[in-house]
Write a structure and sequence with these properties.
This protein is of the alpha+beta class and 117 residues long. It has one domain. The chain is built from 2 helices and 6 strands, in the order E-E-H-E-E-E-E-H. A 6-stranded antiparallel beta sheet has the order 4-2-1-3-5-6. The longest helix has 15 residues. The radius of gyration is 14 Å and the shape is globular.
């Protein structure tokens, strides 16, 4: 299974410009990881001041735990601390619109268009 860092902009106590909400997720693919995080955000955390969904997701590795785990799950989080991960070079997707939540490869945001998986 793959490992992902999922981020929601801000958290309810400080709003969207406060410290972001972070999760580390084990899943088969991006969409499965996002579904786990979005479900958790919508059902387990308040969201009056922020959107109840993941805004950025980065695939950063493969779960090599032993024995091999096969179920998708949130491994860590939510964390509201300022967390700094250097994920340059890893595949990252973002979604920003208030009503249209289409994933775009982050490199497209910075002028390098690449295909979305």
């Amino acid at each position: 299974m793959k490992l992902f860092l999922a981020i929601r902009w801000g958290h309810d106590a400080e709003g969207p410009d406060g410290s972001d909400t972070h999760f580390i997720v084990r899943a088969d693919d991006r969409d499965q990881a996002v579904a786990l995080v979005d479900f958790h955000l919508q059902n387990n955390l308040t969201h009056q001041c922020v959107e109840p969904l993941c805004h950025r997701i980065t695939e950063f590795g493969v779960d090599t735990s032993s024995p091999s785990r096969t179920e998708a799950s949130i491994l860590w989080g939510p964390s509201f601390e300022a967390t700094h991960f250097d994920l340059r070079g890893y595949t990252t997707w973002m979604r920003e619109a208030q009503t249209e939540y289409r994933w775009e490869d982050e490199q497209k945001w910075f002028g390098k268009k690449t295909a979305d998986r």
